[in-house]
Write a structure and sequence with these properties.
The structure holds two protein chains of two kinds.
Chain A lengths: L5 H22 L5 H9 L3 E3 L4 E6 L4 E3 H14 L3 E4 L4 E7 L4 H9 L17 E2 L14 H10 L15 E4 L13 E7 L5 E7 L12 E7 L3 H15 L10 H8 L1 H12 L12 H10 L18 H10 E3 L5 E6 L10 E3 H14 L3 E4 L5 E7 L3 H10 L14 E2 L14 H10 L3 H7 L4 E4 L13 E8 L2 E8 L11 E2 L4 E2 L3 H15 L6 H8 L2 H8 L1
Helix pairs in contact in A: 1-2, 1-4, 3-11, 5-9, 6-8, 7-8, 13-15, 15-17
Chain B lengths: L1 H4 L13 E4 H6 L1 H4 L4 E5 L15 E7 L7 H12 L5 E7 L4 H7 L3 E4 L17 E2 L10 E2 L2
Parallel strand pairs in B: 1-2, 2-3, 3-4, 4-5, 6-7
Classes of the chains: A alpha+beta, B alpha/beta.
Amino acid sequence: MYHYSPEDSKFLVERVDQFEKQLNRHLAGDLDEAKFRSLRLRNGLYMELHAHMLRVAIPYGTLNSSQLRALADVADKYDRGFGHFTTRQNIQFNWIELPEIANLLRELSDVGLHAIQTSGKATRNITADPLSGLTEGEIEDARPYCELIRRWFNLHPEFSWLPGKFKIAINGAKLDETALRIHDLGLRLVRNSKGELGFSVFVGGGLGAAAMVGPKTASFVALDDILSYLESAMRIYNLKGRRDHQKRLRIKFLVRELGADEYSRLVDEDWQQTKDDPELKLNLAELEELKKDFALPIKPINLNGFEEKVDFNYSIWKKNNVRSHKVSGYSIVNISLTKLGAAPGDATSEQMRILADLADEYSASELRTTKRQTIVFPYVRKDQVFDLWQSLEKYGLASPHQGTLAQIVACPGGDYCDLAKAVSIPIATRVQQRFDDMDKLLDIGDLNINISGCENSCAHHHVADIGLLGMQKNGEEYYQITLAGETLHETNIGKKLGPSVSGDVVVDAVEEIVNVYLDNREEEERFTDVFKRIGIKPFKEKVYE
Amino acid sequence: MSDILEPKSIVNKANENIELVEFDEFINNINKYETLGVGVIIQPSDDIILLKDSLYFIETVILDFNNFDDGRGYSQAYFLSKRWGFKGEIIGINAHLDQLQFMLRSGVTSYELLEDYKDFNEDDYSNGFSICYQAAANNSGLKQKY
């Protein structure tokens, strides 16, 4: 597994030292709130409804057990004993005291974790497929590229004060677990007709009030040219992006206003001036070194004669939570943190330590985090999956909800977030209670429900099978419903069903939608395929009749 | 980069007598200034590209960093310094203490801090990074890892 070098670790400490001095100036009244806000956000620190919230990066979603234990310690020492795994491979702590932030960050830097650029108008944590390196058919593991590009835009002098936040995702797999086309910039690893490796580039995707699928701006950028291309893409945004309207800061508005062709032309024009600059070439030697660090720590094993245990509950859990691995003899295990009444993605410090211990025992000390706010054990021997399940059962972590409707993605919503217009977690709980029947859940299959408490869309409701967006109407909480959003096979923004429905009846509406799906489904047909075949009308009729 | 580690106003005194003109005035009267030697004041919204063909007779370019959240000045400095190799002075005015590291690495050669920072304590100020992760107009003093 990749670890930061001593010089990287030193950089993390230097960044904490710098932020501590800025914090002290602010607390002494020498740095006003507006400037401090801009600076603290670049260090992952928000002022939320009740306290400060800190967002810590989990680069490309990969953690080792020591890092998870350090996060558990932070949860106990500086928070209220839990952390919240987000949809973009970060973890958030919601009860941070401002004067303690530097010590907290120093403790994290000891294990190579940081909060640099997890917020603010700069390049955010770069996300990757949580199954990178694990599945058949993958072009390449995206994580070494994530790491090189993350480094390049780390305190980049030209691009640290962009018009808006800038989220990048990189995918090297067949299926898009990263949702790259709803990112400000998405990179897809591809091979050209000569078999050479490079990237297709998509710019201007995003959710929120003006959800948009990012158009392709380049079909093939060679590996060593990617940094210069990214710089040009950001330079055009930095110079021409909207700064005059708070709701139009993101690059999607620039791409929409210029048109994708004109934006692409401007980027290309700038790029032609820099692409041959040797200083901007991706360091291919460093890339090869990084690939060694990211190489899988397992070799194929022969498990001839191994017989799977027979247990009803285990078989249900296994069906939903275990995937095949490209390395023979191994499985990928997905662990759901879902619990009724708790925010999806929440984990207690005790759960984090248990997961760290289990990762040491069963998964080469490595874990991954996913945009569905679950934890992946990437290297579990097939003949140890049952033992792992038993341990998870013992600790209440063997929820078989992964891949079912009950694995709801929800933001903290009105219970925690001062931007929220409505609650999210209580709605998720009510949906889970309504569908609290494993036979029914298994019958429904993999159907995604995402709930966002405001149009910032932190729960990615636009790209769920069923998306709920919280809003206020005459002082009451309402929910706009979108259907058939997706990112895995292709990227589509969900279609609005009709007028928003009140919080009182939104769960009834969800149930009606699921029933329309079940009534019209042919064999193993997915929700989005049914929707494409029968259209929105049957859903509309049931919900609004 | 030693300038970053020891922050102070380093505007070249020899340039103090150069006539300074706003960007629009300059663009509308380029011929008038061609023989004079001139400094041009650029705001973030000004199109720096229009300056490119006149750089050979411009002595200084002054970039205004007053708006803390407006990052266009860094790209303007980049164009002048790295892209076009401008040899004159690139002065960042209305500069903020916490942004000097970005200004100087983008190519700003001298700066004047805003009045707000006149009493700043150098001990409270730190851009003390030992490493940088990207090529920029100015990487001096930093170990480069990329």
